[in-house]
Design goal:
- The chain is α+β, with helices and mostly antiparallel strands.
- It has a single domain (about 5-95), classed as RelE-like (YaeB-like fold, 2-Layer Sandwich).
- The longest helix has 17 residues, at about 10-25.
- A four-stranded mixed beta sheet has the order 1-4-3-2.
- It has helices at about 10-25, 30-45; strands at about 5, 65-70, 75-80, 85-95.
- The two termini are about 20 Å apart.
- Helix 1 packs antiparallel against helix 2.
């Protein structure tokens, strides 16, 4: 069962900001590149069986069912619809950050 995966602008910005932080602040451009690849590979993996992922802490703040995929220290937050065969990546955050209380679709 293949789903169409859509990544929000908010999620794209968060991914790029984290990669920039790793590359500049942590002075680890190679690690940033590798992390970007892992994150995008993880997002691509949501095409198949996205509901394998557990509910995110953000789920309790939303009317939507928010799931998460952990990629190293990062959490990819998304909704999945088996009926529509669609995944919407809403946000990406570091696992040590507090859960997001508001997510826009």
């Amino acid at each position: 069962m293949t789903h169409d995966v859509h990544v929000s602008r908010t999620a794209q910005v968060a991914i790029n900001e984290y990669a920039s932080y790793l590359a500049t602040e942590q002075q680890a451009p190679q690690a940033a590149s590798q992390m970007l690849e892992r994150i995008w590979d993880g997002i691509s993996s949501l095409e198949t069986f996205p509901c394998r992922c557990p509910l995110a802490p953000e789920n309790k703040f939303s009317k939507l069912e928010i799931r998460m995929l952990r990629v190293n220290a990062m959490l990819i937050l998304f909704t999945a619809s088996d009926d529509a065969k669609r995944v919407d990546v809403l946000a990406v955050r570091h696992g040590r950050q507090q859960p997001l209380t508001r997510l826009d679709r």
